[in-house]
Design goal:
alpha+beta; five-stranded mixed sheet; 2 helices; 5 strands; 19% helix
């Protein structure tokens, strides 16, 4: 099964990410990449994305991670109904709210 995930790049304390398609059982940094779909810089919130290839892999059953699904929604890529979406209600509880 294929998955669409983020692959970390960049130097220490300044991460940038590639959006890649990989086998779901391989590690993001060491597994063979099927295709590169784009990049994401969390510091500037810049997303470069090949939407045609993303739609092709989604229609063929590649499962995006929750972060990638949120990036796809922000960029206007139509997600299938079976894609798991992250909602704000799923956040964990704050451990020490008095701090």
């Amino acid at each position: 099964m294929l998955t669409i995930r983020l692959q970390r790049l960049g130097k220490a304390h300044y991460a940038t990410y590639r959006i890649v398609v990989q086998d779901s059982h391989s590690h993001p940094t060491s597994g063979k990449v099927v295709s590169y779909l784009g990049s994401y810089n969390p510091h500037t919130k810049a997303v470069e994305l090949n939407k045609d290839d993303a739609n092709k892999f989604l229609s063929n059953g590649a499962q995006p991670t929750t972060r990638v699904a949120a990036l796809f929604e922000k960029e206007g890529v139509a997600l299938p109904s079976w894609v798991k979406k992250f909602s704000a209600a799923q956040k964990g509880a704050v451990r020490n709210p008095e701090k």
